[in-house]
């Protein structure tokens, strides 16, 4: 029997809500809430985070700039970072990284 991770997603959302708005997403990364764009301009309240459909969530999405001061660089393929650095002329500092299924 598979253990549900849904309470952990809600806990993570509540822990990160002060840094970046958090919304539940399906396994295919699509948002499970219709209206979330207003959080690009303001922080969520704890009640708003709790009211989202975490019981159906396959993951959590943290909204990036302008909703927060987080920025994501999405490099598709092993060569992409090198090409970006050559074209932008910017070397990236060592920072958090993640790999996704898509």
Descriptive account of the structure:
The chain has 102 residues and is α+β, with helices and mostly antiparallel strands. 25% of the residues lie in helices and 8% in strands. The protein contains three helices and two strands, in the order H-E-H-E-H. The protein has helices at 6-16, 46-51, 80-88, and strands at 22-25, 59-62. A two-stranded antiparallel sheet has the order 1-2. It starts with 5 loop residues before the first helix and ends in a 14-residue tail after the last helix. The mean pLDDT is 85.
Instruction: List the strand order in the largest sheet.
Output: 1-2
How many beta-strand segments? 2
Please estimate the helix content.
25-40%
Radius of gyration: 16 Å
N/C terminus separation: 27 Å
Please summarize the sheet with the most strands: 2 strands, antiparallel
What proportion strand? Answer: 5-15%
DSSP helix count?
A: 3
Low-confidence region ranges = none
Note the run of SSEs as H and E: HEHEH
Give me the secondary-structure category.
Answer: alpha+beta
Globally, the shape reads elongated
């Amino acid at each position: 029997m598979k253990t549900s991770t849904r309470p952990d997603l809600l806990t993570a959302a509540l822990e990160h809500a002060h840094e970046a708005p958090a919304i539940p997403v399906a396994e295919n990364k699509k948002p499970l809430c219709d209206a979330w764009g207003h959080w690009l301009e303001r922080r969520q309240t704890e009640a708003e985070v709790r009211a989202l459909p975490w019981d159906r969530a396959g993951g959590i999405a943290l909204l990036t700039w302008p909703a927060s001061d987080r920025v994501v660089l999405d490099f598709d393929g092993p060569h992409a970072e090198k090409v970006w650095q050559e074209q932008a002329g910017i070397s990236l500092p060592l920072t958090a990284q993640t790999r996704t299924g898509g």
